[in-house]
Amino acid sequence: MNTVSVQTPRTAGAIGLVEVGGDLDALLTPILGRKPAPVGKLRRENFGDFDDGLVYRFAEDGAFCFPHAGPMVVRMLVEALIAQGAESTQKAAAFPEAAGPMESLLLATLAQATSPAAVDLLLAHGVRQDDAPLPTPKDLERSRRLDVLLSPPTVTIFGPPNAGKSTLFNALADQQLALVDDVAGTTRDHLEQRWLADGLVVQLVDTAGVRKSSGLEADAICHQSELIHTADLILSVANPEQAFLPPPPGIPTLKVGLQSDRGNHPESHLSLSVPQEQTFQQLAVAIRQRLVLDEDLQHQGPWWYPAARAARGI
Ligand SMILES: Nc1nc2c(ncn2[C@@H]2O[C@H](COP(=O)(O)OP(=O)(O)OP(=O)(O)O)[C@@H](O)[C@H]2O)c(=O)[nH]1
Ligand SMILES: [Mg+2]
Question: Are 165 and 186 within 8 A, CB to CB?
Fold first, then answer.
């Protein structure tokens, strides 16, 4: 049987790995433009007119192709192989230890999950039986809310100049990424980093302080207002002398009073001060709770993660 299977995640990366099995001459010659190399040889090849990369023939009837790992390039190579008669054996080949197709999807989801909390929950409650009964509407709603554990939601720090946004961002990164200064308007572009918030990995964004400005800085602030509108959670911050800025409607917001060593902000949900790092844990829990409910994490019902829903057409 002629087969093709992708062994690397379907996300952008440096190098992809596509395994080809069967009659390699028939499958690969039309794509490479020449016969594949003999067993044990690694050779640079063109993949049609869309990419080039390496091919290693590990057996008479087996080879690894290493294209660039753009999702489109990998797909084009797989489609070219299918056009030559290969059958996609994706799941079985990628997870031979899986008991069935649904467990294979569970393992693929586990391999790509970004948050530690997702791993625990998938192992405990991820759907793995091929004949699992369809979810109730409540199970389905909860499952959709839990998807946030699989790809990092964006948490955007938003507030007036000099609130202490970059100082907080740097302290969370535990390194100096953003410029900090007591001159208002120090940050002119945005910076991003991943941060682990109580088991949930989030994409944290530091923005420029919002104020009236012109020229380049105004462009940067304008670009950031787009970032703010696409945030999953806004971390609205202000120092004790400042008012919180009105956040855009419809986006969950957590008000955090910064520089609490100089006094607490009366309107804040939470106060913190960068020199007092123990407050970071409270911040982590507050962010996680806004994005994933405690009750959803503790629920004992099945998690119909996206691949499981797609497999059942729900
Ligand atoms: N006392 C005290 N000062 C702080 C704290 N956090 C930040 N600061 C000071 O506040 C000033 C402004 O900090 P930044 O982090 O640059 O503020 P920002 O909100 O990023 O400012 P822009 O980028 O200009 O919008 C700096 O002088 C910091 O040292 C804090 O927790 N306590
Ligand atoms: Mg700043």
Answer: no
Classified by CATH at the fold level, domain 99-314 comes out as Rossmann fold (3.40.50)
∠ CA(4), CA(93), CA(108), 5° rounding?
110
Q: Collapsing DSSP states into helix, strand and coil, what is residue 9?
A: coil
DSSP state of 192: E
Task: Decide: 4 and 86 in contact? Cβ < 8 Å.
Answer: yes
Beta bridge partners of 155: 204, 233
Give nearest CA residue, ligand 1 atom 26: 182
Q: Which residue has the tokens 């390039």?
A: 73
Whose Cα sits closest to atom 14 in ligand 1?
A: 164
Phi, psi torsion values for 157, nearest 5 degrees: -85, 125
pTM for the model: 0.69
Q: Which CATH architecture has domain 3-94?
A: 2-Layer Sandwich (3.30)
Q: Amino acid letter at 74?
A: V
186 lines ligand 1 (CB under 6 A): yes
Looking at the CA of residue 163, tell me the nearest atom of ligand 1: 19
pLDDT digits (tens, 9 = 90+) for 133-169: 999 999 999 999 999 999 899 999 999 999 999 999 9
Ligand 1 centroid distance, CA of 92 (Å)? 53
Interatomic CA distance for residues 314 and 304, integer angstroms: 9
Secondary structure (3-state) at 296: helix
